[in-house]
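Ticket closed. Logging final result for SMP-30/Gluconolactonase/LRE-like region domain-containing protein.
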Amino acid sequence: MNNPLSMPHIRRITVAGLSRTLLLALSMLTLLPACSDDEDNTVATPASPDKITVPQAALSPEGIQYDEANRRFFVSSRTQGRIGTVKDDSTYTQFADDARLVSTIGLNLDANRQRLLVAVSDNGANTSRSSAATRQKLAALAIYNTNNGTLSNFVDLGGLRPTQNHFANDIAVDSQGNAYITDSLSPIIYKVDTQGNASVFLENAQLAASSGFGLNGIVFHPDGYLLVARSNDGTLFKVPLSTPANFSRVTTTQSLVGADGLLLVDNQTLLLVAGSQSTVFRLASTDAWVTANRTGSFATGAVSPTTITRRTMDAYVLYPYQATSPRFAITKVKF
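Final structure:
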């Protein structure tokens, strides 16, 4: 009983040791939830795909915009008129349709005002809705609520010059919410304010095409002017918002024939889709777009590229293929 190694004494030492061990273990456990929370709260952003092929027959989309908030692309349709959305898994969903949407061309997503602006025209591609009254006469701006797909306004543009041919093509929106729409068959840029009032912003014979399509892609520059491309010869114009009649040509040595969609990446960088050249050009300017130089190019192949949109830090170009194609594609641009 007087043995120092008797069982009661051993039990006391063991309990004390266990107590210290348990305290150490508990102190370590208090640190684990913080690490676990950090891991749980880190949500990896899915990698953006290099190419999305969409199995929609004869849709022939002309315009595209990326909706960051809902992780989807908006696309128009030259041949069917309806507007749809595309997810990364190639799922196409109809977003909106209306009998007046003969052919939908350029799109502009005004995310701050929850608006999708749609250029509406008729060049005969939609055989089910085209008519003698609208063919090469229709030019309109349809405005949709991006939250629910309802049509909030349908603005007639062609009626401002009823005797001329028209093809509303692309759209830019300035910081005040005014929309500017190019006409490819008349040398006109229209303006539609936030109340839906339409006017001729600029009309000048120098903007006209000698043949084929004239004015096409258009973007708003935050320094207070528009950059506008003419398809037939690739001329790039700079149009001040305050004095549009004082427009000028941007000097560049790169041929931009076939110019279509434009994307202003930053104040000094512009991406331009030259459809007939099957190329996306990257242009840069250091003198407020008095001149511009090519700084890169992306070859699309013979896929009839039309226009381009920003997705976070990437740019995606639209391949409508032929009007009767069983699919279309959205492809990441890589310089």
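The chain has one helix and 24 strands. No further action required.
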